[in-house]
Amino acid sequence: MTRLIFTIAVLLLPLLGWAESPDPSPWPRVVITEFMVLPDGISPEAGQWIELSNFNEEPVNLQGMVLTTASGGFHPISARKELILEPGGIVVLGQLDDFKQNGGIKLDYVYEDDILLGRESDEIQLKLDGTVVDLVSYGPDLISVEVGKSISLEPYIDGIPKGWCLARKTYGEDRNFGTPGEANNYCDNDNDGWAEDEGDCDDYNPKIGPGMPEYCNGIDDNCNGLTDEDVEPTISCLDKGICAGTVPTCQGAAGWICPYPEGYEEVEVTCDGIDNDCNGIVDDNHTFEGLALGAGCVSLGNCGKGVVTCKVDGTGATCSTMPDGPDAKDSEEICDGIDNDCDGETDEGFNVGEACVEGLGACAQIGVFACDKELGQICLAQVIEPSEEICDGIDNDCDGQVDEGFEVGVECSIGEGACRAFGKTRCSDDGSSVICEAKPGTPEPEICDDGIDNDCDGQTDEEDCVKAKKSAGCNSGPTMASPFVLFLFATLIIWVRRLAKAS
Description:
Number of helices: 3
CATH architecture of the domain at 2-187: Sandwich
CATH class of the domain at 2-187: Mainly Beta
Largest sheet: 6 strands, mixed
Helix content: under 10%
Distance between the termini: 146 Å
Order of helices and strands: HEHEEEEEEEEEEEEEEEEEEEEEEEEEEH
Structural class: mainly beta
Strand order of the largest sheet: 8-7-2-1-11-12
């Protein structure tokens, strides 16, 4: 039961509602590929048939297999001889093996009246040893039966069944449609009159197929191997002003576009003497105080009378003049207390009124920026005259240098001998010079023969030096021997006397 449910679930084709069993390995892969339910012009008993195909690489003996239907049909396949189905082979089974009465079909096997397919719905099963090898279901909820048309499994593509559909090729007396004993026809899945084998490059889209009109969409609509060829534009482009000469261009999936040049504006924004929005009007809606471009005007500031023109940066219109005539352009704004560019503002872009510093060093004074007609922007501050540079850590002469001419911070020393000390130079208290910032030691009495200038007079061990006690320095007379030396000396005398007596 589990195997049957799996077989049905895997092979249900959602689009058409038909099922084909998977490879039931190790069972033979014999597939129900076509069947006729309601033949035209003859009774079902005479004209019904079932087609089996071998999809194995080896021959399959059909003897022993059982054909059943949900409506009660049951037939064990048997024959006087083995019924061998070669690899890729096809056999047709039916009730009546009479070419003239069965609609013009040559049967390979007759199951007589054991099998009669339901006229509206049924299920056909092929079994071996009680196991379903293949099954097919049909009915109103799947696909409806039509008189005179077999139900056909579309040819496998890369080993995968594409789906079921009604046959499109006639057989016998050309009253019935089907391909019994032959390769099945491809399905026209989108019902556009073309199947895949007939050149339909997308058989699931009725708008795509041979003879269909080509559109600008990046798709080969007419299946001729070309995309978007010879398509007529469905849009028109603006052709005035900067857009002159622009034609629609097909961009595949993006459709039609108008490749307008750089500078195109959907709504005119830039005032530049160009029709940017391509409506045939140059710089429309650009005015100066209600005056159109080219009209006479009286400008602000130092400009006087002139004409309305576009601003240099294209951001709008202005009254562009100079005092000497309307043809001259506004001048660049300078710091002179005059509205040179005639925009209603004076000395804009300068730091007028802001704090500034004038001079260097001791001469530096805080002032404010102001405009001068000749000099432009200047710093208004009280001027202090420079003074002579002295050594005080201040730029007295206002040249940007401090204490130049004085060697401040240089290594130095003070004192002689043992009193000598090291430091660095600094400014004197009166600023006239530099002094060595070091503290010399205190002189001591000169000690004889120690090699040091103890009294810091520039001389070492001079004649009036002090004799050092308990030291080896300046020995001018005998000194008392230590008790240990005296003990050794006495012991030596005693031993000499003893030796003399002994001799």
